[in-house]
Amino acid sequence: MTAAAPGLVLVLNSGSSSIKFQLVDPVVGTVPLSGLVEQIGEPDGPVADHAAGLRLIHRQLTDSGIDLAAVRAVGHRVVHGGNLFYAPTLITDEVVAEVARLSELAPLHNPANVIGIELARKDFPDVPHVAVFDTGFFHSLPAAAASYAIDHDVATRYGIRRYGFHGTSHEYVSGEVAVLLGREPRELNIIVLHLGNGASASAVRGGVAVETSMGLTPLEGLVMGTRSGDIDPGVLFHLNRTAGLDIDELDELLNRRSGLKGLCGVNDFRELLEQRAAGGSRAEAATLAYDVYIHRLRKYVGAYLAVLGRVDAIAFTAGVGENAPSVREDALAGLDGLGIVVDPQRNRSGKGARVISTDASPTTVLVVPTNEELAIARAAWQFV
Ligand code: ADP
User: Fold this and answer.
1) What is the pLDDT of residue 5?
2) Does domain 184-367 sit in CATH 3.40.190.10?
3) The domain over range 8-133 is classified in CATH as 3.30.420.40
4) Which residues lie with the beta carbon below 6 Å from any ligand 1 atom?
């Protein structure tokens, strides 16, 4: 008898200013309980620090009436695995120390991940804790895609390469595409467009990631809510020399005051669409923001077509990708000659995972809701 014993996985995503959690049944895929604590440490926030945040979550878990003995594993989303970690990893003291050391590469994220891990290990001392790395899926990038064209010794000494992020989502969605098409992942070339607050694209050949838009940090690539994505690094030198902005100010400019927000003042895509439809002077800025966003997306689709040579499927996912039909339509408009034909009707109707291209389109275009928590829960379940 090898039937899976019933049980739940607690999935924790401990970020710099929020902790999200889900209790997931990794076999059935249901979520009996989920929640989040936001604005940690902020003046108007509910809690002063992560420890208080996790206490709050523990109380929500206890108050829910769910038997916590059913929690058989804890899965932790960890942002940066560096060159060290890519597969889901059973957490030990040594692993925690290494994840903390990798904070150099992800100063906002890894320290918060470590705090979440340490607190949760105290709360749930008797079950396996498993780290699932956002960079993991992109460990397979070929050197030609992973390397920056800079001094080789400098790159080696400081671990400068393209790591990629959102890997759990890209892996999950590309796997779901194969399921939806009834094909084996190894037969398929897929472009995944993860468009949320952060946004990234990936090219997946036969189930293996061969290119992605994010780099050493999650700043490179597509236009995002508040991040610039691709930019000439010369802009930084220029702003430093002419405007006197120092490194921290430039960091803040590109990570928090750029992207859609920089272009039109709002980072939420729904607000952008409303502003664009409203007319007047604010609509002009919103239209430019939208156009820059779409243009960048098209460029990446074109680039990844060339990287893959043949593309069987393009999948849109995350908040914008799943819910903004105009983005899907505009990003792929006029690509009939390249074998991509979106069906306007299908694109604008329906819900959940679905095909939105015409039956005759050589490349199948899909909407595939992402589910990073389920992917993390399944990964953690392997260790039970
Ligand atoms: P996160 O990166 O925080 O997980 P999400 O994947 O939830 O982000 O995506 C958030 C983005 O999705 C926001 O910009 C939000 O405005 C956008 N979004 C959500 N619903 C819609 C919708 N119906 N139309 C357009 N954009 C949407």
Assistant:
1) 53
2) no
3) yes
4) 196-198, 225, 268-270, 273, 318-320, 323-324
